[in-house]
């Protein structure tokens, strides 16, 4: 179902729940994996994905359609991830390196990466990036999102995103070479 149809149904009080269920079915998997790449842990990603859709439910009636529904939902998911990572550091008074180390340990325990040494090393390298740079890397590399859409999601200019992605790729390449060699 197209986003416009979902939105039209959502504005009809009798069809609101059906429309929202269709929206969740359409975007839940993408949102979950977007969040999971940022927070690593399945349970945390599951909780945050629920939080994202609660926010979508609460704000969908006021959605102005300045951006596509997809990028609007991704922006909410992105903000939830960044807020969660920031609060995790503040709650435990952890420097960035300790949070990275904790997430790295969770990566090693992740059954979905079992036996895939290259992907595990890639994920560990990505974890060393600053949160926003990691976000840009994930959106471009894994989600293959065009820079224009990324700009809508992050509220950053296309030029800045290209530069950020370039720097992230160089850092990841360098770390991968160190780990392999």
From TrEMBL:
<dbReference type="GO" id="GO:0016987">
    <property type="term" value="F:sigma factor activity"/>
</dbReference>
<dbReference type="InterPro" id="IPR013324">
    <property type="entry name" value="RNA_pol_sigma_r3/r4-like"/>
</dbReference>
<dbReference type="InterPro" id="IPR007627">
    <property type="entry name" value="RNA_pol_sigma70_r2"/>
</dbReference>
<keyword id="KW-0238">DNA-binding</keyword>
<keyword id="KW-0804">Transcription</keyword>
<dbReference type="Pfam" id="PF04542">
    <property type="entry name" value="Sigma70_r2"/>
</dbReference>
<dbReference type="InterPro" id="IPR013249">
    <property type="entry name" value="RNA_pol_sigma70_r4_t2"/>
</dbReference>
<dbReference type="InterPro" id="IPR036388">
    <property type="entry name" value="WH-like_DNA-bd_sf"/>
</dbReference>
<dbReference type="InterPro" id="IPR039425">
    <property type="entry name" value="RNA_pol_sigma-70-like"/>
</dbReference>
<dbReference type="InterPro" id="IPR013325">
    <property type="entry name" value="RNA_pol_sigma_r2"/>
</dbReference>
<dbReference type="InterPro" id="IPR014284">
    <property type="entry name" value="RNA_pol_sigma-70_dom"/>
</dbReference>
<keyword id="KW-0805">Transcription regulation</keyword>
<dbReference type="Pfam" id="PF08281">
    <property type="entry name" value="Sigma70_r4_2"/>
</dbReference>
<protein>
    <recommendedName>
        <fullName>RNA polymerase sigma factor</fullName>
    </recommendedName>
</protein>
<feature type="domain" description="RNA polymerase sigma factor 70 region 4 type 2">
    <location>
        <begin position="121"/>
        <end position="171"/>
    </location>
</feature>
<dbReference type="InterPro" id="IPR000838">
    <property type="entry name" value="RNA_pol_sigma70_ECF_CS"/>
</dbReference>
<keyword id="KW-0731">Sigma factor</keyword>
<feature type="domain" description="RNA polymerase sigma-70 region 2">
    <location>
        <begin position="23"/>
        <end position="89"/>
    </location>
</feature>
<dbReference type="GO" id="GO:0006352">
    <property type="term" value="P:DNA-templated transcription initiation"/>
</dbReference>
<comment type="similarity">
    <text>Belongs to the sigma-70 factor family. ECF subfamily.</text>
</comment>
<dbReference type="GO" id="GO:0003677">
    <property type="term" value="F:DNA binding"/>
</dbReference>
């Amino acid at each position: 179902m197209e986003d416009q149809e979902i939105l039209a149904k959502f504005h009809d009080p009798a069809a609101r729940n059906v429309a929202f269920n269709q929206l969740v079915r359409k975007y839940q998997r993408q949102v979950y994996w977007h969040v999971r790449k940022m927070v690593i842990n399945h349970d945390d990603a599951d909780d945050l994905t629920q939080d994202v859709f609660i926010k979508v439910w609460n704000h969908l009636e006021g959605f102005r359609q300045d951006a596509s529904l997809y990028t609007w939902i991704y922006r909410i998911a992105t903000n939830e991830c960044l807020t969660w990572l920031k609060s995790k550091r503040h709650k435990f008074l952890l420097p960035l390196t300790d949070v990275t180390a904790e997430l790295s340990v969770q990566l090693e325990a992740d059954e979905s990466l079992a036996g895939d040494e290259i992907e595990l090393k890639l994920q560990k390298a990505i974890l060393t990036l600053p949160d926003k740079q990691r976000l840009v890397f994930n959106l471009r590399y894994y989600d293959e999102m065009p820079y224009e859409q990324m700009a809508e999601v992050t509220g950053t200019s296309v030029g800045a995103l290209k530069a950020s992605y370039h720097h992230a790729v160089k850092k990841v390449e360098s770390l991968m070479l160190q780990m392999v060699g």
